[in-house]
Every structure is written in C-alpha cells, then in structure tokens.
# Entry
Amino acid sequence: MTISHLRKEYKLATLAEQDVTADPFSQFSIWFDEALKAELPEPNTMTLSTVSAEGRPSSRIVLIKNADEKGFSWFTNYNSRKGLDLAAQPYASLLFYWIELERQVRIEGRVEKVSAEESDAYFAVRPLGSRLGAIASQQSQPIADRAALEQQYARVEQSEGEHPVRPAHWGGYRLIPDEVEFWQGRPSRLHDRLLYSKTEKGEWHIKRLQP
# Structure
C-alpha cells in the first residue's frame, strides 16, 4: 500500500451548534475530560506553532499545563527557538489532535508570559530531574555530543543540590485566544467544524465552517 492509499473513514460522532457551550473554554473542558475518560495516550500534548521575525514558521509538541478562561498555558525555556519566535512575534497557534475520538481543536491568539509567581509555583512541583535539566540545558543551542550534555547536567546537579531555584530563562506562556475551532471527523470528509470567534466587545460568536 502506498502513502496515497492510506485512508480512514470518520464516523464516531457528530458536532452540531446545539451540542456546544456558549464559550470555547467550557467546551474545551468538556472535550478534554472526555479525552481523559477515554484514557488516550498523553491527551495533554499539543502542537505549538510560532513564526520567527523573518516570517519562518516552526512547530513542535509541548504539554499544556493549564486551561481556563484566562487562556492556555505551557512552560519552556524563554531562550529556545519558540521563545525567540514569541519575543519577535507574540502570536501562536495550538493544535490538539485526539485521533481515537476523531477530534481536533485549533486555537489561535496572542501569547504573553505568565507571572513570575506562576512560573515559580509550577517549577517547584516539577520532578527534581526536570528542574535540574531546565537549568542545565541551553535549549535549541548546538552541543558537541550527548556526553557534553550529561556533563552539564552533572555540574548543575552538584551545584544546585535538591532545591534548585527557577532560572530566569525558564517559565510559562499563556495563549489568550481570539479563535477556537472544534473539529469532529465525519464520513466522506464532510467534517463538522465549529469556529468560536471573539468580537470587539469580547463576546464569542459561533459559526460553522465548510470542511
């Protein structure tokens, strides 16, 4: 079988306007809870797409750490490629893909850093190895080999001990959405797509998009 012949028919569920809530945050919560109950592998993974100052797009998988009416949050190295992109272009998109439920959620909006207090609180509850790794790794920068990386980690482990302090270059971001699309796969590629768009008055408007 060739790549072009790979095909899946989507027919698990439907998505109608009367089935969704008035705001995207509560609707996302419903779908995320259903993904958890379905015991999907890592339902908290999402694709984060950013754009550099030169207009070059880049995507990677990150883990969502909070989702509420304020926005969608994750944590990373501020000096990484995505961090530099966001410093130049503070807009991004997120994509959740729950193939077992034949669902996607696309989120777009402005990105800002979370408060230092929020970053400190989350850093404190991470596993010790992850905290040390955040200090040791100069994320996205080249390094000679694996051994050099492990040596950096060993030096940090010795100097920081069991109570490392969050480094200034590491912390959280929050995407504040102005558009959220819920996608439900349907037969014959006639998928259901409902788009929440935020108006200038701060209200959410729902419209159906053609697949």
The longest helix spans residues 146-160. The radius of gyration is 20 Å. The beta strands are 45-51, 57-63, 66-68, 71-77, 91-98, 103-113, 170-184, 192-198, 204-208.
